[in-house]
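User: Please run a holo structure prediction.
Assistant: Happy to. Please share the sequence and the ligand.
User: Here you go; the ligand is protoporphyrin IX containing FE.
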Amino acid sequence: MKGVIFCGYRDYVEQAHGIVTWLEIIDRSELAESSSFIATDLYDDKILVELLTIGAELLDTELSELLRSFGVFLFPTLAGAASHHMDACDNVFDFLDHVENVIHIEVKKSDPTAYTPSLILDKVDDQTLLLKYTSHRQVCFLAEGLIYGAANHFNEDVALEHVSCTHRGDKNCLLKVTTK
Ligand code: HEM
């Protein structure tokens, strides 16, 4: 996973729970070599999983909830990195389409070591979108948080339903996004 995600997690923990919590997570980690990460470097996915798992234990929260909050926090950073794209859309459904068909493709073009999830979209009607999330990393709850973050950006109120989830033994993760 790219360092930008690790830096985002560090910033999230520091801002939401304090630097002492972040240092405690690093202290308990067996895999992290230091408390700082470089945004453009590539790190083993296992390190992030470990840091997230320790964070959830320490904060006495579910991993899914931690990933969701982290995703909401991370969205403005990713949007900042794609600022030239943010004016291309004026609503969250069009933006998700833009992420899958333009932004994530550009990310991989400019950095062949990057891996982004597949987000297959099916717009059911003006208020409802089905999104099939596929990634070997299985961080569908991070995707949920990022979608809530995107909705905040476009001043929209969305409800998310995890219709099916690989963490519940389903074959795929299917998210139903409804605008209110
Ligand atoms: C709501 C919008 C978005 C969603 C749902 C989304 C989803 C995700 C998820 C879930 C991941 C984690 C990796 C995985 O699942 O395998 C990811 C990685 C990433 N995304 Fe997005 N993303 C969004 C917007 C953006 C934007 C605006 C950018 C701006 C450049 C971006 C760039 C990246 C990068 C750099 C990674 C890390 C790739 C790597 O570690 O190799 N994403 N995205």
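Residues 83-179 form a domain with the H-NOX domain fold (CATH 3.90.1520.10).
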